Amino acid sequence: MIGLPKANGILRRHFLVGASALAVSACVKPLVTFSQQPNRTRIILLGTKGGPTLTTRTNRSNASTLLFINDVPYVIDCGYGVSRQLINAGVSLDRLRYIFISHYHSDHDLEYGALLYNAWTTRQSPRVDAYGPNGLRRMTRNFFNYMKFDIDTRIVDEGIGDPRKLLTVHEFSRSGLVMENQDVKVTSLRVRHPPITQSYAYRFDAKDRSVVISGDTAYAPELAEFAKGADVLIHEAMYLPALEKLIQQNPAAKRLREHLLASHTSTEDVGRIAARAGVKTLVLTHFVPGDDPSITDEQWTEGIRKNFQGKIVVGKDLMEI
Ligand SMILES: [Zn+2]
Ligand SMILES: [Zn+2]
Hints:
Elements: H1 7-16, H2 18-28, E1 42-47, E2 64-69, E3 72-76, H3 82-88, E4 98-100, H4 106-109, H5 112-120, E5 128-133, H6 136-146, H7 148-158, E6 167-172, E7 176-180, E8 184-190, E9 200-206, E10 210-213, H8 221-226, E11 232-238, H9 240-249, H10 254-263, H11 267-277, E12 281-288, H12 297-305, E13 311-314
Parallel strand pairs: 3-4, 4-5, 5-6, 10-11, 11-12, 12-13
Antiparallel strand pairs: 1-2, 2-3, 7-8, 8-9, 9-10
Helix pairs in contact: 11-12
One zinc ion binds at residues 103, 105, 193, 216.
């Protein structure tokens, strides 16, 4: 544990190293500018890439979205890199409070356990509630077994609390109310993501804003009903011409293409859903493909524009909406 220096020590040090401190603070400054209205519901895209691969070809981390509701963070999906992206967004991990998993594909849950673990190591012992379809309890237990040696060692050796006692897991197996507190009501809708049958969209109705997150889904008209009147719809997006290009380059990708077509939503259909839902703002995320830097923002939106006339945001990592 690092002790806190005395107040006058901080002042003196600040005075002496003013210039270099400025340089350092420029480096560690959160990439997201904090809103002037702390109680406003904020949306920050932590990871906007679809699929499990990691890439440096685009600046997209794996899937995760953050909502700040009354200054409390709600993390939806935990793709690889979510802990780092939270820190990059200026959210210290001891603030972790709520996690929601849409379905058990690795690009949505690979860092679920590691995020809990990383929050635990801050020693501020956050209390965390995690929500997801059936299977979350088993996955959580398996993660803690995977890390059992390290956790048990640290508890004894470092006098740190037991992370297994900090977490409450909540499972569900059908659409409906997921949780409700004084700030927000969260509901879920089962969507279409074969072969996975338990894949869900979430709707967050806060006092000032309603936000729907599609999760992974093929075209699902019922999602338009679920998102009716929401202020913001955050929807996955698949760009079909890029898939055709992929097939031409690699015929073995045919099977992958079939899977993608059956379980994700083309940009044209995303536009249909947004128009039917009557949302004010559509935010694109979970880009498929998410590792092709040649696809422009205009290309992501042109199919949508055919069907939806509202505001479209082509999501970028650490963008705030
Ligand atoms: Zn996915
Ligand atoms: Zn998926």
